Amino acid sequence: MEIRDKLAIVTGVSKGIGLAVAKALLDEGAFVAGWSRSKPDLAHDRFHFFETDVTGFDHVQNSYEATCNHFGKDPVILVNNAGLGYNGKVEEIDMEKWHTMFDVNVHGLFYCTRTAVPAMKKAGEAHIINIASIAGLNGIEEMSGYVASKHAVRGISHSLMKELRNDGIKVTCVYPGSVETDFFNNITGSSGSSNKMRAEDVATTVVETLRTHPNYLIADVEMRPLQPKK
């Protein structure tokens, strides 16, 4: 896809991978709608922030309409990045935290995708990037809720890839390992790898995946630090 002048929605844009992806897309000449609950430290004439809680379907629909009205076009790139995680033993984890992980990581992704797909089908060319986690491929002790939510992202992504490919819509699922973000702030007693990846490198991979030939689909991208315990 030619990225320049295309409209992209990036969720979870306030920091970390989402902010890095927004900046990378702007560098490519895209228009970017940043969706999150907190405004990022980002000023650019092709960027606009829309305060969005992805756990509410009505809120997502309102942000989508506002996005299209502001930019005067429909988005053909959607980066479902909003996500969070909590840890805890299965018999101890707070029930509200368990439900919050699914509300953000799974339901939020579904709401955003469901809202964007009709216009993407009309465009005949679009790309949905779902940011999962290496936890979407493995089990992790005392992180059953987060792992389950990211396995759900993997399942949704693979199903949507088959459902939407004949409409010209690509779906790619990305599985980062430990990234230098604020993710581990919510993870008691763990900081992940001591030598984490950079968010901007994940963003570069997202951009290169978007750039691919119209008939070339990358379904999955797994990425890890080279020396995680350096």
Question: How would you describe what is shown here?
Answer:
The chain is α/β, with parallel strands linked by helices and about 230 residues long. It has a single domain (about 5-225), classed as Rossmann fold (3-Layer(aba) Sandwich). It is about 40% helix and about 15% strand. The chain contains five helices and seven strands. It has helices spanning about 15-25, 55-70, 95-125, 145-165, 200-210; strands spanning about 5-10, 30-35, 45-50, 75-80, 125-130, 170-175, 220-225. The protein has a seven-stranded parallel sheet, sandwiched between helices. Helix 3 (about 95-125) links the parallel strand 4 and strand 5 (about 125-130). Helix 1 crosses helix 5 (about 200-210), helix 2 packs parallel to helix 3 and helix 3 (about 95-125) runs parallel beside helix 4. The longest helix is centred in the middle third of the chain and has 29 residues, at about 95-125. It starts with 6 loop residues before the first strand and ends in a 7-residue tail after the last strand. The model has no long low-confidence stretch (mean pLDDT about 95).
